[in-house]
Amino acid sequence: MSIDLHVHTKASDGLYSPADIVQMAGSAGVSVLGIADHDTVNGIDEAMSAASEKGLELIPGVEINSYNGDAEYHILGYFLDHKNSDLLRALEELRAARIRRMHGIISKLGLIGITVSPQEILALAESGTVGRPHIAQVLVRKGYAASIREAFDRYIGEGKPAYAPRSKLTPVEAIRIITSAGGLAALAHPGLWHGDELIPQLAAWGIVGIEVYSPDNTAEQVARYRDTARSLGLISIGGSDFHGWGDPARNTIGMAATPPEEFARLRDMARRERRHGPRE
């Protein structure tokens, strides 16, 4: 039994459709799959339908970026009501902010002699959430970079000449968006950022878990975050953060799985939340 609670689809910045992701997860031996696209739940219904046919349990989720000062925290939401009107409105606003950011990056690219059109980026994103990986793919296609990683490292990564900041939602706001839709919030891949000192405060604000098992966490970080989760009474979650455009040696569906006993805690908590209603 493999439980991967952090996978992206074409509804945001993944390369594969929700149905394809479910098929790939089943082939990889995943029995419980969490779809956690950036700022959208538009792929959930398709994934649920495919999962039902495949006999795979599908957990509706989302991933929302947030900031506390200069530190970035990605907040995962699980077991949420993906048709909740307040949730849909909040996510629509976040996607609109991504479009504004895209135009800012395009303008900065133009200043260094790189011509990219919004239409090229939107065509890649199709109807999904626009992200920097889409811009990076266009840069690769047009020969400005040899890979998505190089596009980030040379042009659009933080501190690079075409970087544009995104709207800075706070962790409290991100957690509230998730919990108001009946979901459970967790901290994604903490090893990517430098802000561990805020984890106890995040727990006080309402996260119920930490993504302890992640390809982005080192072995030392896995041990440290597992201890942190235990000390704070949080659930140790695992997920591959699969997008399809990363290195397959370290970014494959089913990697960094959630332990079954930890998933059982998460599911039990979600059932209790449904009985008592969303938390404010």
Description of the structure:
This protein has ten helices and seven strands. It has helices at 18-27, 44-54, 85-111, 118-125, 132-141, 148-156, 171-179, 199-205, 219-232, 260-276; strands at 2-7, 30-35, 57-68, 71-78, 184-187, 207-213, 235-238. It has 280 residues and is α/β, with parallel strands linked by helices. The chain is globular and about 55 Å long. The model has no long low-confidence stretch (mean pLDDT 93). It folds into two domains: 2-84 and 171-276, Metal-dependent hydrolases (TIM Barrel), CATH 3.20.20; 92-156, DNA polymerase, domain 1, CATH 1.10.150. The longest helix is centred in the middle third of the chain and has 27 residues, at 85-111.
Q: Give the CATH superfamily of the largest domain.
A: Metal-dependent hydrolases
What's the CATH architecture of the largest domain? Alpha-Beta Barrel
Which value, in Å, is the CA radius of gyration?
18 Å
Helix content: 40-55%
Query: Can you tell me the number of structural domains?
Result: 2
Strand ordering within the main sheet: 1-2-3-4-5-6-7
Intertermini distance: 34 Å
Main beta sheet: 7 strands, mixed
Number of separate strands? 7
Order of helices and strands: EHEHEEHHHHHEHEHEH
Structural class: alpha/beta
**Overall average pLDDT:** 93
CATH topology of the largest domain, which one?
Answer: TIM Barrel
Tell me, what is the CATH class of the largest domain? Alpha Beta
Strand content: 15-25%
Strands, helices and their partners?
Layout: E1 2-7, H1 18-27, E2 30-35, H2 44-54, E3 57-68, E4 71-78, H3 85-111, H4 118-125, H5 132-141, H6 148-156, H7 171-179, E5 184-187, H8 199-205, E6 207-213, H9 219-232, E7 235-238, H10 260-276
Parallel strand pairs: 1-2, 2-3, 5-6, 6-7
Antiparallel strand pairs: 3-4, 4-5
Helix pairs in contact: 1-2, 4-5, 5-6
